[in-house]
Amino acid sequence: MKRTKSLSKRDYYEVLGVSNSASESELKKAYRTKAKELHPDRNSGNPNAESQFKEVNEAYDILKDQNKKAAYDRYGHAAFEGGNAGPGAGGFHAGSDFSSAFSDVFEDLFGDFRGGQNNKQRASRGSDLRYNLSISLEEAYSGIQKTLNIPSIINCSSCNGSGASGGSEPSTCPTCSGMGKVRAQQGFFTVERGCPTCSGMGQIIKNPCQKCKGSGQEEKERALSVNIPSGVETGTRIRLSGEGEAGVRGGPSGDLYIFTEVMEHKIFSRDGKNLYCRIPVSMTTAAIGGEIEAPTIDGGRSRVRIPNGSQSGRQMRLRNKGMPALRGSNAGDLFIELAVETPVNLTSKQKELLEEFKKIENTKLSPSIKTFFEKAKKFWGSNK
Fold first, then answer.
1. What does the radius of gyration of the chain's CA atoms come to, in whole angstroms?
2. Are residues 82 and 22 in the same domain?
3. Are residues 258 and 335 in the same domain?
4. Same domain, 227 and 296
């Protein structure tokens, strides 16, 4: 039987902009598109937006239900008007399940405005805590066990976090029936707000605990032993699950996040896994070569051979003498940078010897000086 068209109502398929052979997913997609397009909050300048929005919801509410859709396909709008309901129509009239008809699009537009109505709001997760921990470079190298005194919120020791005194239990809020929310009609919409009686908790406490004043929590500093692994850097984050603030009304505790800050060292500087050390050497050692002792981060020392003719800034690498890797790869290297030191406070004899050296010095001994002044002469000549 072909469905008859109503003179006062548009065809539901036409309203959604689909054919009568559209699949369930096509109907839903078309509905979401139309509902977003025509939502009154997005069409404040269109006086017809509200009625068009209702029309879209009415159409989808019929077509998304297989029984109602079958009745509509057979009898048209007459299936839902008065006593002419066809088989399976069940006396339905458009708008009886209006909120469910457009809950999907509400989630898209505003988020789940009903989210949490099945959660009693009695228990909620505790807040996460952050602790900034300063350690030395040596501690970062070797790793260390630290005892931290952390001020935090814990469950009240008197009421065990219930907030009620004398072993009593919180009772269900009579205003919201334990939902934590109340509904109010505002024109076309039903709006949910936190219950004013229980402040959204879903429960009221008639005999609050004297120690925590009904909050179920108290402040306390606690000692916590923490293992800091070797190889940490400034900014390394260590997460300790469940060591944050206690949850409300028996909810799970939050987490503790430890952020490490490695302090500057007097001898070494650091770049990732590598360490750098600037070591002064005498002019004579740099000139004729020799050996020096280089400190290492583990408290030891390594003998390093200095080639003759070494200049300030020369680098030498000691492999695997840097910082350990935080996650399993090879250790870094230690880079030594030479700083050739000019002697000061010379004795008469030392000055005499240097004067003798100066007399026999030639440009082959100082190639950088020769190269520089050759360039300088060309520069001076070009500016005459």
1. 40
2. yes
3. no
4. no
Q: What span, in angstroms and rounded, lies between the C-alpha atoms of 211 and 189? A: 43
HSE of 124 in the Cβ direction (CA atoms, 13 Å)? 14
**At 128, which CATH number?**
2.60.260.20
Q: Dump pLDDT digits (tens) for 187-213.
A: 666 777 888 877 777 777 778 887 887
Looking at the structure of the chain, the number of domains it has is 4
Closest by Cα among 121, 112, 117 to 200: 121
Let me know whether 275 and 252 are in one domain. no
Q: Look over the chain and give the mean of its residue pLDDT values, rounded to a whole number.
A: 80
- How far is 105 from 371, CA to CA, in rounded Å? 78
Closest CA to 63 of 8, 112, 14, 2: 14
Contact 150, 222 (CB under 8 A): yes
Question: Which whole number is the average pLDDT over 113-134?
Answer: 66
Q: What is the pLDDT of residues 85-122, one digit of tens each?
A: 443 333 333 343 444 444 444 444 444 444 443 343 45
**Whether 71 and 102 share a structural domain:** yes
| Cα separation, 14 vs 8, whole angstroms | 14
Residues 99 and 228 occupy one common structural domain: no
- Residues whose CB is less than 8 angstroms from the CB of residue 193 and which lie 6 or more positions away in sequence, other chains included: 181, 182, 183, 184
CA quadruple 244, 248, 250, 252: dihedral positive or negative? negative
Q: Are 154 and 129 in contact (CB under 8 A)?
A: no
> Residue 365 falls within a domain, yes or no?
yes
Amino acid at 42: R
Question: For position 21, what pLDDT does the model report?
Answer: 87
Give the range of the structural domain holding residue 39, as residue numbers without chain letter: 12-110
**Residue 184 pairs with which residues in a beta bridge?**
191
Q: List CB contacts of 57: < 8 A, sequence separation 6 or more.
A: 35, 98, 101, 102
Q: CATH no. for residue 75?
A: 1.10.287.110
Evaluate the CA torsion angle 365, 367, 368, 369 in order and state its sign.
Answer: positive
Token digits for 85?
């309901």
Distant-in-sequence, close-in-space partners of 164: CB < 8 Å, separation ≥ 6 = 170, 205, 206, 207, 208, 209, 214
Instruction: Please state, in angstroms and rounded to a whole number, the distance separating the CA atoms of residues 48 and 370.
Output: 90
